[in-house]
Design a protein that fits this description.
heterodimer; A: 430 residues; alpha/beta; D-Maltodextrin-Binding Protein, domain 2; 2 domains; B: 298 residues; mainly alpha; MetI-like fold; 73% helix; globular
Amino acid sequence: MNKRIAAILFLALALSAGAFGQKKVDLKIAWWGSQVRHEATIKVIELYQRLNPNVSITYEFAGFDDYWTKMTTMAAGGQLPDVMQQDYSRIAEWQKRGLLEPLDPFVADRTLKLGGVAKPVLDSGTLDKKLYALSLGSNSYCMMLDVDAFKKAGVPLPAQDWTWADLERIAMQLHAKLGIWGVGGGFEVDELAWKANYLGLGQTMYTPDGKALAYKDDKALVDFLHMMLRLVKAGAAPSYQEYLANLGGATGNVQLDAIVTGKSAIEAVWSNQVITVATAAGAGRNFAVVHLPRHKKGGMASNFMKPSMFFSVTSQSKNKAEAAKFIDFWTNDVEANKILNAERGVPVDASVRAALKEIVSPVVKLGFEYIDRVAKDAAPTPPPEPAGHANIRQNVYVPIIREQVFYGVISPEEAAKQLREKAAAILAGK
Amino acid sequence: MANVRRRKDEAAGYLFIGPWLFGFLVLTLLPILASLWLSFTDYDILSPPRWAGLKNFGTMFLADPRYWRSAAATLYYAACAVPLRLGVALGVAMLLNKNRRGVAAFRALYYAPSVVGDSIAVAVMWRQIFGGEGLLNSLLRLAGLPGKRLWLADPRFAIWTLILLAAWQFGSAMLIFLAGLKQIPGELYESASIDGAGPARKFLRITLPMLTPIIFFNLVMQMINGLIVFTPALVITDGKPLDTTNFYALYLYRRAFETFQMGYGSAMAWVLMAAVALLSALVFKSSSRWVFYESESA
């Protein structure tokens, strides 16, 4: 009898030792994004927890602006999550403040296996010769075209090396034939009218040290704004008022997007967003994805290859190795990437990419093929934006270029001049 | 002996207000003082603050046209929304002051918009009403009018959608007016009736003067609320178009938490506090000329 009790006790002890043998790990992960991304990410987190029962993951997500508000306040309070999504335009600043952990030790001990990741991709997250962030996908700005609308209007789809003049002509044609807008709202956004516009001339907005503006001539920006004003006036592009009031311009609601509702046939989006827009548009619609227009036919591309976003381990994390292990799963696991569906951009690991290429939906494939084309035909990647960029964008570019020009308060010439003066003052630290 | 007892009472008193006192000192006073210091620095949260002297104030007053646009928009909003809200509140309070059947239900009904008050849900609803394809335009079209105006994106009208929202949320001011109306002795109206005064005269000569302490209280409270308005502009108009609804508190928030200029945001906050204090002081000062307390001899 005593023997039996002893045996049971022993068994219980052994069982509990087994259960406690694996240390319990709490991880916190944070990202920004849309609803599509939130759902996919949460599914991958659940998958990871099933495969690693000792890990319990909490998470936080928000839209882009709110995300940075949250993360910055958390950083000040020493409360940063273990794994945080990072952006190309912010990473330098966060690294400089010592908030990110170098990943090299985890690469060395193979917690994080990066054998299938190309060097330029690793370089994009490398600062001061250390890897601080791993790109989650390759991305490039693109023009998304409503193929059905083009067919209906009898307008041929533009070629890869189409020009801004082509864009204007095609938008006018689409408007004339179909009565819809040729292009959707918000083309005067800084990424397009300012950054891509000058990239196509082989120039950048900022100098490499981020202390001054690099482009010397306002003409390209002024010309772009005049083109948009002509399109708006002709009814081939929505007015800024329309964009704010009806197209989700103020709320970022993709359901209201002009190409989603069929009110326009050309939309400028990041290639990883094609899936979000197409999903919102619903089944039965056909889209194509093409390079941004350039200044001269056969000239330099206005596109550049951008790491869509990164995962970083923060220096405030208490479980850095476990955090790296999660990033490894994210990068190399085919099942996880099937769920993620390349919504954060085309996966960086070669074997994952190959496995996905076979099975992804036609819409996701659009993005894959587009990124392949951009890889061969792109402007050189500009340096990350300097620390003052957010301030310039929010307090100078948006109120002056987007609002005052398109409400007709000031001319494009005057706006470009003001932008130059005010941006220069901010960059110089005045 | 008496001294000891008194000290004991004091100690007990402090013990009772202790939790509040702690909260006030640590969670309110300390951050307020910290923000005063921060207003003289450059601070982006991620790196330690750097002393900047009066730079933030200089930029604000001399080199930031958006600052003045936001200040002007806020004053315009407060100047329109506060009288409108008080007027509506008083009007409804007078209607609900009658002793009819079901008046309690109406009181609850009219108070409801203020309960949901600053909520996001109301703001989203407001967006729907005034959107390009919204309720208002649909009604206008039903009435045979064009109904095409983009209210939220039109620099002339966007702020008025927010002012209307403020007028609609009159509940708390209404309740206070209602309590005030109940305090006015019925004999005053009776004797006025006997002397042959009509409703308008009774309102001007009895109701308004007797209510002045309440009006004064409501005016101060609503003015402060109006000057720090935030949520509706954030959700309904996003501060657009052309900064016509970029209210002071919203702009302050954007500077502090979107472009992470905490020093600049703190400086803005202190100027706002000074402005609110100054305006309140002016209202208080003027009150001796128009506020009538019953305890005074007329």
